[in-house]
Amino acid sequence: MAAGPPRDAGAAATRAFEHITDYLTGLSTRPIAPTAGYGKIRAQLDVPLPAGPTDPVEVVDALAAGTADGLTGTGSPRFFGYVIGGILPAALAADLMAVAWDQNAGLASLSPAAAAAESVAGAWVRELLGLPASASVGITTGTQMAHVTALAAARHRVLARYGWDVEADGLHGAPPVRVFAGAARHTTVDAALRLLGFGTRRLAVVEADETGRMRPDALRAALAGGHGPAIVIAQAGEINTGAFDPMPEICALGREHGAWVHVDGAFGLWAAVSASPRRRALVAGIDQADSWATDGHKWLNLAYDCGIAIVADSDAHRAAMSTRADYVVHGGEGEHDPLEWTPEFSRRARGFALYAALRSLGRAGLTDLVDRCCGHARHFAAALAGLDGVAVLNEVELNQVLVRVDDDDAITGATTDLVVTGGVAFVSGTVWRGAVAMRVSVCNWMTTEADVDQAVAAIATAAITARARARA
Questions:
Q1: Under a CB-based contact definition with an 8 Å cutoff, are residues 183 and 203 in contact?
Q2: Virtual CA dihedral for 31, 32, 38, 39, nearest 10 degrees?
Q3: Gene3D superfamilies under this entry (predicted)?
Q4: Per-residue pLDDT tens for 153-187?
Q5: Which domains, and CATH codes, for the chain?
Q6: Distance (Å, rounded) from C-alpha 191 to C-alpha 204?
């Protein structure tokens, strides 16, 4: 019989920690974009499968060497692409411990520690966001699955009002559920509707204004145009402009028409902790919704992956997610079984890092993080607007800045690409109202004004190069 791998896990973990330390130490100076593409990295990793065991330390070293050039420095203070935060030190440490502890976080009986950490962290999230203390919380992989979780609860409740048990009888023959969302909704909404069996053709798209906000008058007309079970999906923080749907009006219309209102707040919900009355006003009335989805790996600066589903109707939430089996030992009265609140049965203990991040920041630290990023976004916008030929397309209400160069698709796209390949900063491209644009998102706890200035300088240089190449 072939011998198994060496049993000294400590040696491999120690070597991994050395690689982690080297990576983090060099994060602020290394090129942010990968310097090698998929093909090269795959070739470096694609060795023949070993016939027998390999020393774990050797495996760790080979993995670190083979992937180094293909890693994106998403934790860099000058990473402004998509909406991706860094990793808070306490959250990083907690995640490393969670991996070592290797807890299956589905049941309180299986891991009282993981279940308790999730329960406390969920209560803190509700408190910070000003949501009902009685709401239930499930921790998922991200807002995509948080949508699925919350909208499954919505599906349960709106159909139950019409006498239909969707968990038992499915959707075949059920009363048709009307689903409404704004024209500028995030694509994860559509994906969630597909996964839940609604299909995207069931979605009634509600007109949005020039900033991406859903128009209440258009929603009112859409709701009045039919009857039956209904779900309205609002948005707190449009992915390009950061715009917020008018929550008080939308929630009031939902109540008037008996519709469940769900809020996509992947990053925007955290405006609730801002010290700025203007920013807090963006989420005014949001507590009147029925469910909410947000991310931990964006503004909370947790490692991937962590999403949070919050549902005011905890009975509907449990009915949509809960499952039973003879061999499963469920928690007793007052104990939190995470599998009751998410689509996953077995999963990693994401709650440890969420708990650690919130405890390390506290309310004041989280407020400072959000407001500091918003201040950096405003500085970004002012500095970019001062560059020749650069236009900022949105009012910077939060942490998103939308930019166009020379009012030209090709030059804007080329500028974006040049910034990324230059390695000093990372921004992402998008299409806004039919035009190519550059998108800048600020949500890293380490970002400073100096980092913003470096990024602006990189964008200015890239724009000059893009124009020159276009003329050549």
A1: no
A2: -10
A3: Aspartate Aminotransferase, domain 1, dopa decarboxylase, N-terminal domain, Type I PLP-dependent aspartate aminotransferase-like (Major domain)
A4: 999 999 999 999 999 999 999 999 999 999 999 99
A5: 92-357 (3.40.640.10)
A6: 15
